[in-house]
Amino acid sequence: MKEYLIMFLSLFRLAGKKIRHGKNFQAAPVQRISPGARFFMKKGAHAVLGYNGCFSRSGNIFIGEQGSLILGSRVYFNVNAYISCQNSIKVGDNCIFGPNVTVIDNNHAYSKEKGVSTSLHSCGEISIGNNSWVGANAVILKDTQIGNNCVIGAGCVIKGVIPDGSIVTQDRRLCVKEMQ
């Protein structure tokens, strides 16, 4: 019963986003977004949510005015997931994200002379293929491409290219194995 209530509440919540953002917001009608999850889009942002996505409680999704977030069907974000999209984040179908996962396509700009800027960002892209699993407390940084059928182990910090069928563990080894 609770599952149906969450889907019903999500429908209203997403209808408000559709009214506010028009063609820049598209979502399949079946979504499970916990009432405790925050979903914020700036004007000009673009979002596409595939069929039957799930955002568990205490999650935060932020899409900046130039950002484009595209999530495939049956994507699951566990509790306390954090997504910051200033440029481009694409997630394929059937992906699972463990608790406390961070996906962030931007950094604060930095220079030796001025230090860290609070208003300027350096942005990149993130792409995560179909059927991938990102373990608890993992951090996915800008300029990352994770292939299809990958496993990112708990606590990993990922930047760069991870080939299809890879398993990445926290000890920084990249183990390319055939998935069975």
Verbal overview:
With 180 residues, the protein is mainly β. The protein is built from 1 helix and 21 strands. Strands 1, 3, 4, 6, 7, 9, 10, 12, 15, 17 and 19 form an 11-stranded parallel beta sheet that branches. An 8-stranded mixed beta sheet has the order 2-5-8-11-16-18-20-21. A hairpin with a 3-residue loop joins strand 13 and strand 14. The longest helix is centred in the first third of the chain and has 20 residues, at 2-21. It is globular and about 50 Å long. The protein starts with a helix and ends with a strand. The mean pLDDT is 88.
What's a quick, concise take on this entry?
This protein is mainly beta and 180 residues long.
Low-confidence segments, given as residue ranges, are none
**Strand fraction band?**
over 45%
Determine the oligomeric state from the structure: single chain
Principal-axes geometry comes out as: globular
Number of strands: 21
Please state the CA-atom Rg, rounded to the nearest Å: 16 Å
Q: Counting H and I runs of at least 4 residues, what is the number of helices?
A: 1
Overall mean pLDDT score? 88
Distance between the termini: 35 Å
